[in-house]
Amino acid sequence: MISTSASITDSAPPLLVVEDSNEDFEALNRFLSRSPHAISVHRCINGDQALAYLYQQGRYEEPSSAPRPGMILLDLNLPGTDGRDLLCQIKRDDRLKTIPVVVFTTSNNPKDIEACYRKGANSYIIKPVNFNLLRQSVQTVMDYWFAISTLPQPCPEA
Fold this sequence. Notes:
This protein is of the alpha/beta class.
């Protein structure tokens, strides 16, 4: 787990980043660490690990090791269960489907974009290659989801 600095209350839900690229994650984490928002960050490197996290299974059985995320930042091209399948599983599950999922990927394929929105993605962002545009994109996403919008609370267990 990685925490960023100051400003949003301690009760801000964590961000779950599902990203297999160490380089992309490190760049993202550098931006988040400079953000004015205090957001704890959890990372999963593939869809299977993300499912274990979301369902608190395996090494994530302890609730403190896998708190419910306020948002999921999802890469599409992952080993094992890819981001497309993971998005479907999240949005089909009544306990998870209210978690906003922002697809953050290099794919600019119109079929991927349409399919992700049809499957319930809340946003689709193509990772900019330019460092400054990437920083701006990440900051805009964090500002919107963690400062401007009201995130849903977890549904009580039935």
